[in-house]
Amino acid sequence: MFKTLRPALVLFVLLSALTGLLYPLAVTGAAQALFPAQAEGSLVLRGGKPVGSALIGQNFSDPGHFWGRPSATAPMPYNGGASVGSNQGPLNPALVDAVKGRVEALRAADPANAQPVPVDLVTASASGLDPHISPAAAQYQAARVARVRGLSLDRVELLIEDHTEGPWLGLLGEARVNVLALNMALDAAAR
Question: Which residues pair with 43 in a beta bridge?
Answer without folding.
Answer: 53
